[in-house]
Amino acid sequence: MGTLRADEIISIIRERIEQYNRKVKVFNIGMVVQVGDGIARIHGLNNVMAGELVEFEEGTRGIALNLEFKNVGVVLMGGGLKIKERTSVKGTGRIAQIPVSEAYLGRVINALAQPIDGRGPIPASESRLIESPAPGIISRRSVYEPLQTGLIAIDAMIPIGRGQRELIIGDRQTGKTAVATDTILNQKGQNVICIYVAIGQRASSVSQVVTTFQEKGAMKYTIVVAEMADSPATLQYLAPYTGAALAEYFMYRERHTLIIYDDLSKQATAYREMSLVLRRPPGREAYPGDIFYLHSRLLERAAKLSSYLGEGSMTALPIVETQSGDVSAYIPTNVISITDGQIFLSADLFNAGIRPAINVGISVSRVGSAAQIKAMKQVAGNLKLELAQFTELEAFSQFASAIEKTTKNQLARGRRLRELLKQSQADPLSVEEQIAIIYTGANGYLDALEIGQVKDFREKLRKYLKDQVPKFQEIISSTKIFTEEAEALLKEAIQQNSKLFVVQE
């Protein structure tokens, strides 16, 4: 047997190397050195990314949040009760993401986009990052389309437009969730996809909201993302981002979406809990330094997209709870500075029977009349000013011994206007009905009625317009203008209704 020459050996080795096609996977692996309170510290994972999904040996997943010199701080997405010291951890190479599809409509899911309504798995062929960059300035256009809430006090004085971020703020038990859910109910037939994110709520409260949606036929266009009060802090922190990812899926498909975050105070509390356990330095009220960034990067994702991107929109209504009406606390001031206005709900007004308990004086929409149709601008232009003046006048008149006739008349009209703005829960009004009601009050047609008769008059007028004068609604809905013909029809309807009521002497 002859010996091989050196060049032959080299050619054989080169040929074998070229023919070698076995795929080699290099895993980024670490080991648990400490675990507890929903946090695991991992030694290793040297190439892990911030926000990367990691998988533990026993199946639990986590998100790498703290990338430190000697270890990686991972928050667990679930219980992780079987995780122990020396459990191996593998990096997935993927930033946290969720599956998305049209099939999510009508479903109740958790922060991991898994169904929790007992109706089986949800098919999805696509996925979206839980945290994705907000649209830039060039990708947006100014807000100009109204998003009707169905509540007269908001649509007439604090209008919300598609693509806006409007904060709902107030003490607990003042009707914040009611305002948000009524807005969802009013989107029926408006081609708007709604997402309700419940963070740290009682399971019974979420169940009640879902039942209301089902009874009113709103679940057809709604997704409920729920992480209850007993859920891990990690999942409560993630829930709003999951909701935002689902809303973006529809927004970039040229659809209009409305997302409710109920509420961001509880998300901030969950994030504070996570951060303190991760040993991040505490700041004001023990919140970490990036608590503002937590909410700003979430709310900045709400947008009205440009014509080039299809003019889809994502309207955000975050809810924040105050303590004793203190809007100057840390989280309220943070979110107020990020949003385009706020609807302030007052405990005093709520207890006085004024519902929705909206304090018109400090509630504001920075989009303003750009988010109203022309007919609403024509009718409700001075309404907010009149009510603010009435509130001031009423406060001063308590100290007066004798009140002149002009002041008495102004107070009487103000009280009737305030009565008109009261609304029952889950009873949103169409914009045409709102225009008719505001016109009636603002032009003094209710001055002759007792205050107790105002609500009855309003309901009879609504029914009369719907049954006897459908042309009024047709004119407003088709032209968006309060024309002379519409005004004449409305005056006739008001006169016909006034005959049914006993006039004051």
What does this structure look like?
Helix 5 crosses helix 6 (about 265-275) and helix 12 (about 405-420) runs antiparallel to helix 13. It is built from 16 helices and 16 strands. The strands form three sheets. The protein has an eight-stranded mixed beta sheet, sandwiched between helices. Strands 1-2-5-4-3-6 form a six-stranded antiparallel β-barrel. It is of the alpha/beta class and about 500 residues long. It folds into three domains: about 30-95, Elongation Factor Tu (Ef-tu), domain 3; about 100-370, Rossmann fold, CATH 3.40.50.300; about 380-500, Lysin (Up-down Bundle), CATH 1.20.150.20. The model has no long low-confidence stretch (mean pLDDT about 90).
